[in-house]
Amino acid sequence: SQQGEEDPQALSIQEGENATMNCSYKTSINNLQWYRQNSGRGLVHLILIRSNEREKHSGRLRVTLDTSKKSSSLLITASRAADTASYFCATDAQDSSYKLIFGSGTRLLVRP
Amino acid sequence: DTEVTQTPKHLVMGMTNKKSLKCEQHMGHRAMYWYKQKAKKPPELMFVYSYEKLSINESVPSRFSPECPNSSLLNLHLHALQPEDSALYLCASSQEGGVGGFTGELFFGEGSRLTVL
């Protein structure tokens, strides 16, 4: 079952621009995570934000979480061609902390 | 060592074959996972092992049989698969801890790409 929906499904930007991806989910969560996947490769963890946090930064990444709206956003600033990848949000339901469910994903293309 | 190693990287099998996918981690993680991912789709959870015991089976068909021989190894035994089972199979592990178990990030392997003819 899919917990999160992401938009946009695909995003194409110029190098140096900012990229914003949004994630909405359905049930109460303990935390929300963002992962990156290069084509055909494994997923790499980017950042985790707990349900009692509203904003978190890591390098060029900024994540916000609004639990009242059940939504999160990932902002990548000053994008680079190497940021081209698929980005997934993932949530663990409060009733099952092992059950990390991924959103539908956003495919980001950063043009040089 | 922060790696999860999956073998084989590619596997082609017929519908009557029996094969296995293997996953290994040496990070001391006590939760291990199998996900299935079709092209341009998100990973879908299949199985979760916690302390070498199966804790979650997401109603996966019995032609997929997981096994956790020890805390470092996770296998997925495949038998009588269908062409629609062709996908990227991802193994992951996570650190156990605290009440409620799961504490944070999953570490993924590079996946095993399975083609069923």
Record keyword descriptors for this entry.
heterodimer; A: 112 residues; mainly beta; six-stranded mixed β-sheet; 11 strands; globular; B: 117 residues; seven-stranded mixed β-sheet; four-stranded antiparallel β-sheet; 0% helix; 55% strand
Mean pLDDT of chain A: 92
Please give the alpha-carbon distance between the first and last residues of chain B: 36 Å
Distance between the termini of chain A: 36 Å
From the structure provided, what is the oligomeric state, counting identical versus distinct chains? heterodimer
- Most extensive interface: pair and counts? A-B, 26 and 28 residues
Order of helices and strands of chain B: EEEEEEEEEEE
Share of helical residues of chain B: under 10%
Structural class of chain A: mainly beta
What string gives the helices and strands of chain A in order?
Answer: EEEEEEEEEEE
The assigned structural class of chain B equals: mainly beta
Number of strands of chain B: 11
Q: List low-pLDDT spans of chain A.
A: none
Main sheet makeup of chain A: 6 strands, mixed
Q: Please state the CA-atom Rg of chain B, rounded to the nearest Å.
A: 14 Å
Q: What general outline of chain B do the C-alpha atoms trace?
A: globular
Main sheet record of chain B? 7 strands, mixed
Please report the number of helical segments of chain B: 0
The helix fraction of chain A, in percent, is: under 10%
